[in-house]
Amino acid sequence: MSTTEQSPEETNGEAGSAKSAERASEVGDKAQPRDAAGTAPAGEIPSFEVTLKVRRYDPERDEDARWEEHHLTMFGTDRVLDALHKVKWETDGSLTFRRSCAHGVCGSDAMRINGRNRLACKVLLKDLDLSKPITVEPIKGLPVEKDLVVDMEPFFAAYREVMPFLIAKGAEPTRERIQSQADREVFDDTTKCILCAACTSSCPVFWNDGQYFGPAAIVNAHRFIFDSRDSGSDLRLEILNDKEGVWRCRTTFNCSEACPRGIQVTKAIAEVKQALISRAL
Ligand code: SF4
Ligand code: FES
């Protein structure tokens, strides 16, 4: 383990470090998993060497965040989350990050991996360029509490504001509220959100203006605005018509690219804008 103040750009730069060059010659442009002898015996999972650069920050100890480097032997089936576990369980138990399901369902381990918002449990190490260090940082735009853990409260406050629950008028029905397949199709995509914040924390408008609702809140408003069983659409549209609402979106598509569920986030935001325009006519 080593600690350094170098930025990932410095170590990911064209010149690269001597260690990176040496590693590149060892593993090639895109590393192929193998064991120390160069091939994995039949039936065994091949292993390879990985350099993990983790952004560390302990508010009780550090004035500023710093980079920390770990050299690990990992396997072809390992993900970035497994590399973080290896550091935490075998080298430094103080490394702090969130994770729960480890299978892309709970949304708790969104982080910046090689500069892109991803779920650590969904990124296989063998799919990354292992000739360079893998950088892991907290998502942007939310206050860092410790290492890779950010304060999610501003994110969830925006989510709560759009009232992400069914608002139905009238007396409680005696049977289920019927909805056609076509009606359900209209908002099917936005039901898939796992509230990981990868979209909101990749949005430049959110970075510069923490008051902006952000893509995730709009996606979750969309899920109910276009639900034929819901009666609260006008309320939600009114909320999103705010100066910090949908009109702040600059259609950069960062959110759609970041979403680990493949939700067409920018399209959903455009549909909410369109609903506001049609309502005004
Ligand atoms: S829309 Fe996608 S990226 Fe955004 S919070 Fe939901 S699952 Fe995560
Ligand atoms: S740990 Fe649950 S989504 Fe990655």
UniProtKB/TrEMBL annotation:
Compositionally skewed regions (Basic and acidic residues) per UniProt: 20-33
This enzyme's EC code(s): 1.3.5.1
Oxidoreductase keyword on record: yes
Cofactor(s), names only, from the UniProt record: [4Fe-4S] cluster; [3Fe-4S] cluster; [2Fe-2S] cluster
GO MF annotation terms: succinate dehydrogenase (quinone) activity
Domain of life of the organism encoding this protein: Bacteria
Gene3D superfamilies attached to this UniProt entry: 3.10.20.30, Alpha-helical ferredoxin
Region (Disordered): 1-45
Alphabetical keyword list: 2Fe-2S, 3Fe-4S, 4Fe-4S, Iron, Iron-sulfur, Metal-binding, Oxidoreductase, Tricarboxylic acid cycle
Pfam families: Fer2_3, Fer4_10
InterPro entries: 2Fe-2S_ferredoxin-like_sf (IPR036010), 4Fe4S_Fe-S-bd (IPR017896), 4Fe4S_Fe_S_CS (IPR017900), Beta-grasp_dom_sf (IPR012675), Helical_ferredxn (IPR009051), SDH/FRD_Iron-Sulfur (IPR050573), Succ_DH/fum_Rdtase_Fe-S (IPR004489), Succ_DH/fum_Rdtase_N (IPR025192)
Similarity remark: Belongs to the succinate dehydrogenase/fumarate reductase iron-sulfur protein family.
Name of the protein: succinate dehydrogenase
Classification lineage: Bacteria, Bacillati, Actinomycetota, Actinomycetes, Kineosporiales
